[in-house]
Structures are given as C-alpha cells and as structure tokens.
Amino acid sequence: MPAELDYRAIGDRLHDSRRSVNLTQAELAAKVGVSASFIGHLERAEKIPSLETMARLCQCLNISLDWLVLGRKGSGCDRCRCPLYRDLARLEAEYRP
Predict the structure, then answer these.
(1) I need a labelling partner for 4 at 20 to 30 A (CA). Which of 18, 42, 68, 85 fits?
(2) Can you tell me the distance from the alpha carbon of 61 to that of 55, in angstroms, rounded to the nearest whole number?
(3) What is the 3-state secondary structure (H, E, C) of the chain?
C-alpha cells in the first residue's frame, strides 16, 4: 500500500463514478448529506473527506471503498492485517443498505 493516498486519483474516481450514474454534484451531495461545493472540492482534491463521508459516497454510488480509496477491485493484499482495510470494511458494512 502506498505511504500516502493519492487524493487526486480519489477525486478522479469519485467524479467518474458520479458521472457514470448520471448524478450531478448537487444530487450526490443531497444523498450524502454534504454541500455540492464540497463534492466539487473532493473531485478536485482540494479537501480530504472523512472515512464516514467516503463510506456514504460509496453507498450512494454503489462502488466499494477499495475502489474509491485505492483504485483496486477485488483482493490485492492481505486485508486482515491492514488497519485501513479493517476500518473501510467496518464503515462499508455500517452504510450498506
């Protein structure tokens, strides 16, 4: 896992995922409970979302936290020993309908 997260890549994945489900920034913001300008800031990597906000975004966009945060689909490392994956899995379970 990289030492530092690539927030530009996270913003790009967020933007692409939002567009793929035909949501505006305002529509996604309303679903997540944040402002439309905050979604824009996230997509441009000008602000860093909390894990809770990332989990809500993923729920609304029907994407995994793995994909949003790391750009990974499927198992790419030993998740049971990785604290980030444990936190992501816990949050994902909390916000999944």
Answers:
(1) 18
(2) 10
(3) CCCCCCHHHHHHHHHHHHHHCCCCHHHHHHHHCCCHHHHHHHHCCCCCCCHHHHHHHHHHHCCCHHHHHHCCCCCCCCHHHCHHHHHHHHHHHHHCC
Q: Which two tokens stand for residue 2?
A: 């990289």
Could you tell me which residue, 73 or 10, shows the higher pLDDT?
10
Q: Which two tokens stand for residue 40?
A: 């824009």
Which pLDDT does position 3 carry in this prediction? 55
Does the pTM surpass 0.85? The reply is no
